[in-house]
């Protein structure tokens, strides 16, 4: 009887290990390879030399770790109708002003266009951001250095689909350069 209990216990331990080995990882990854390709999928298996990614279109895809440039967790909410939508901060900007999709709370964004346009924006809330910029004309021996302030407020009408926004560009060109 004692041997049967030990055998039963041994089988239970082995079966538990087998069942646990069959659990799948639901981690959604974004992998950019050295050649610029980007793959999205669930982590199927990994070891010290490779990652096996379960992708929607290609099935199981083996990627050598040496070929991986960037690997990060992807947010499932960024997939809309099967396509990945990047959370690009610039999506809140046109060339020189904001649109109705504001920066998220805590996002900080700096941009420089051709050395002349320097701007930094910060999302104070999900619906309000403020930008500060400078056009360094002093680099060209100008006596004025324009600075500008760009407040932006948005009002979501339908979440992630329709927003109404208002913004302004407040410019001061009377700042004299001391150069």
Task: Report what the structure shows.
The structure is a single chain. This protein is mainly beta. The protein is 11% helix and 45% strand. The protein has 2 domains: 2-84, SH3 type barrels (Roll), CATH 2.30.30; 89-172. The strands form 3 sheets. Strands 8, 9, 10, 11, 12 and 13 form a 6-stranded antiparallel sheet that branches. A 5-stranded antiparallel sheet has the order 4-3-2-1-5, with no helix packed on it. The model has no long low-confidence stretch (mean pLDDT 79).
Descriptive keywords:
179 residues; mainly beta; SH3 type barrels; 2 domains; six-stranded antiparallel sheet; five-stranded antiparallel sheet; 13 strands; 11% helix; elongated
What is the domain tally?
Answer: 2
Q: Which consecutive residue ranges, at least 5 long each, have pLDDT under 50?
A: none
Order of helices and strands: HEEEEEEEEEEEEE
Q: Which structural class matches the secondary elements?
A: mainly beta
Average pLDDT for all residues: 79
Gyration radius (Cα, Å) is 27 Å
Instruction: Please describe the biggest sheet, giving its number of strands, its sense, and whether it closes into a barrel.
Output: 6 strands, antiparallel
Shape: elongated
